[in-house]
């Protein structure tokens, strides 16, 4: 079947136990825009918050499911162990280091990974994040920071950078990325993880660059991670349109990969499956986008529900703790 290459990373979805603190951190400290306040469509009793560039362009969305009683993450292997956020250049990292110190955010020192300057940090729940400089980036273009952001536009977050996967069996994930999803092996670099040097293998798709890479490291001596607040639920990769997504549904089924089939998410269409080490992958279409039911100026201000949930609005809102996002 004639499949087009995946275009890059679409979004990353993580877990928080506190929507209000989460909203404050990602909008006020990191300067992202809340482009959609909605619910988890598989469990409408919980919020699903989408933070992104000015309008939620594909490749810029970091999303969170609020699970109020989520326990602490028990870190381990077979997981998405870090999410990168792109910033314009190396000088931006100096700005961010000072900002993280000002806001008393736990962070490491600026370093070089795979030829790029990076700055690792953790949010208030231990979510593992990495700021990565786009100064030398060639590949998928970044997004556009919101003009009303708390962060100056010249240093604003442009979107998602590489996701880091930590796995127990490298060859399993490698085969899935290359043979199923069509990624290319780009190279490798050495980095220090928990005090020891590790090889990190880099894979890319589409135009490549920071917005289209997956970095994989093998750790055989750890138990599988137990997800909780501060962990990543899944990563989604970009598919051009619904027609192309339906091809992927057919291909994964022909390969006997257990999958969700075609899923309607209203703001995009999706397909879910797990790679052989158990990490949840999603393929998601670039459209229709977040302005389907809200205009640009008022994205994220009110609780948005897809039309197929609108008749349940009263009962859905009754289960949610009010979250003021009009500040």
UniProtKB/TrEMBL annotation:
Q: Which SUPFAM superfamilies match?
A: Glyoxalase/Bleomycin resistance protein/Dihydroxybiphenyl dioxygenase
Q: What Pfam family does this protein match (any one)?
A: Glyoxalase
Sorted alphabetically, which CDD domains does this protein's record hold?
A: PcpA_C_like (cd08347)
Ranges for domain VOC: 8-134, 159-286
Q: Which domain of life is it from?
A: Bacteria
Protein name per Swiss-Prot or TrEMBL: Glyoxalase family protein
Recorded source organism is Evansella vedderi
């Amino acid at each position: 079947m004639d499949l087009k290459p995946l275009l890059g990373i679409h979004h990353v979805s993580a877990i928080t136990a506190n929507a209000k603190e989460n909203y404050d951190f990602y909008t006020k400290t990191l300067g992202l825009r809340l482009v959609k306040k909605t619910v988890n469509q598989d469990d409408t009793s919980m919020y699903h918050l989408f933070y992104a560039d000015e309008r939620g362009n594909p490749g810029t969305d970091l999303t969170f499911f609020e699970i109020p009683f989520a326990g602490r993450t028990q870190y381990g292997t077979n997981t998405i162990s870090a999410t990168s956020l792109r910033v314009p250049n190396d000088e931006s990292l100096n700005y961010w280091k000072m900002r993280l110190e000002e806001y008393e955010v736990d962070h490491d020192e600026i370093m070089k990974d795979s030829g790029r300057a990076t700055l690792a940090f953790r949010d208030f729940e231990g979510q593992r994040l990495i700021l990565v400089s786009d100064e030398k980036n060639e590949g998928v273009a970044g997004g556009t920071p919101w003009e009303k952001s708390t962060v100056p536009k010249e240093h604003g977050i442009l979107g998602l950078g590489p996701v880091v996967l930590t796995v127990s069996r490298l060859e399993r994930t490698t085969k899935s990325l290359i043979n199923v999803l069509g990624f290319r092996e780009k190279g490798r670099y050495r980095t220090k993880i928990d005090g020891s040097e590790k090889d990190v293998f880099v894979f890319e798709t589409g135009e490549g660059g920071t917005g289209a890479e997956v970095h994989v490291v093998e750790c055989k001596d750890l138990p599988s991670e137990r997800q909780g607040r501060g962990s990543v639920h899944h990563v989604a990769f970009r598919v051009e349109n619904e027609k192309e997504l339906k091809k992927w549904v057919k291909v994964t089924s022909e390969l006997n990969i257990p999958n969700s089939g075609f899923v309607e998410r209203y703001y995009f269409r999706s397909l879910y499956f797990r790679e052989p080490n158990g990490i949840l992958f999603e393929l998601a279409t670039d459209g229709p986008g977040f302005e389907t039911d809200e205009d640009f100026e008022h994205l994220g201000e009110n609780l948005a529900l897809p039309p197929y949930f609108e008749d349940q609005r009263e009962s859905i809102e009754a289960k949610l703790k009010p979250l003021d996002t009009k500040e």
